[in-house]
Here is the input.
Amino acid sequence: MLNYFLYARKSTEAEDRQVRSIEDQLSVLRSLAKQEGLCIVHEFTEKETAKKPGRPVFNEMMERIERGEARGIICWKLDRLARNPWDDGKIRWLHQIGTIQQVRTYEHDYQSEDNGLLMSVEFAAATQYVRDLATNTKRGLHEKAKRGEYPSVAPVGYLNDVARKVVVKDRREAPVVIKTFELCAEGDSRLEDLSLFLFKGGIKTRATNRWRSEGGRPLSRDQVSGMLSNPFYMGMFRYAGELYEGKHPALVSKKLFDKVQEVLRERGRAHHEPENNPKPLCGLLRCGECGRSITAEEKVKRQKNGNVHAYVYYRCTKKGTICSQPFIREEALSAKLSEVMGHYALPHNWAVELRAMADKDEWEATQSTATASQAMKEEIMTIEKKLHILLEARLEEDIDRDTYREQKAELLSHKKGLEEKMALLAKGQVAWLEPLREWIKDAENLTETALTPTLTQKKLSAKKFFGSTLFLKNRSLVLTPTTLNDALRASRLNFLQNDLCTSLVRVAGIEPTTSVLSGQRSTTELHARFLYQEIIYHLWRLRHNIVPRTGSVVPLRNAVHQFRLAI
Here is the structure.
């Protein structure tokens, strides 16, 4: 009497798919064995795909068959045993030489002395099914990608909406991802710092089927770099080496994404470690006498009682010149810098009024903005035609795959840039409000930054607000501020002396119109309005690269109008 092995298999470990498959197979095959009087010596069950060799349970069963522990196999269908030529050939060979004398399925009985053609055909059909399924699946995924639908698991910052079959923003993770791109674009954060920032924001490694205990850790450098290099976040995605336009919402603009890529490329170049250790305030100041850079050096003082004190001194490098400027202690320099920052800090109530005025101007400009993007629309249509022609050329095999992918990526990138420019044009004449609001924010933050003991933060804030206008002379800070910053300081001095100022801050002879004083306004609103006009005029002058002569007079009453016409 032959001994039999019972083999039952399903293709996935997921509990929500084929959940009854193995139990059903076992139930039916046990009944069949009992009905026909077959002796089952062992049952093998496996949750593994048969499209490739290497199933551990199947291999164990075949080894025990070759040792002679059984001469027959009972299974639901032949495709449960094999869907690949390797396992298929092994079964058919052992069946042909008699090591396996019988393979019993629910529908057929395959004896070793029978013609093996039917078994060969059924195994071939099972193998071909896998190949067709892979081809059809790949074709379906490519069609999905062409429609702009991402055919895979959404990256960090997004979620797969299973019900609608679309990719949507993750409300919790998306803001963290956006801030990470912004921090990277600034160029001051290492990949390790960005990984820690993501970790604090709740973005960490996820457990896998193989390593279920490895989740919950900060992302590695490569993972952070891969995330920042993924075009998915600017509204595109790569699939099978090809770039596609996505229908999912972009988290960052193309401009910000390109800036991040520049930072990453710069980081990838070889850098030499500096021989010295630069101090926090180096690079912020220049010598007020000779114009050379200000450097720092550390001095150590050892007292007789054993105490050791370290001091940092800043001085002119005096490189290639004779300079009489003395040194200054770091603590004294920090105090003087805080004092200067305090003079240029924007009062909170002024900032509130300035933002309100900016919001009002934005609303008025948006209402009257005319569409100026027709040329860009036509160019985008031309690009879409080129993409269509390029696809046809690829389908006709007039160009190779690499050339197709390269040209397609270039066209899509250009199209994305045009679309973002159109979005900016759609805002009309309010593009100047972004640098205005940024300046208001920086000026308002000076109050808090001046009080911080962190020299690095103080340097970054001062560098951003004052630029290269700070000089060190006779152990004092000398400032040559821009017209805009000078207007702010003079406004503070004048408005502190007069509750209702009847004349605008005089900067290079600039005077206000009398119309600004019409109506009843609060002192804060008047102060902010005067300063607001000064800011608008400064931005307009910067846009046209106009440097007024000393003592020149430029009427402010047309400044806002001129600036808007220039946009």
Summary: Confidence is low (pLDDT under 50) at residues 14-19, 497-521, 546-567. The first strand starts at residue 3 and ends at 10. The CA atoms of residues 500 and 551 lie 25 Å apart.
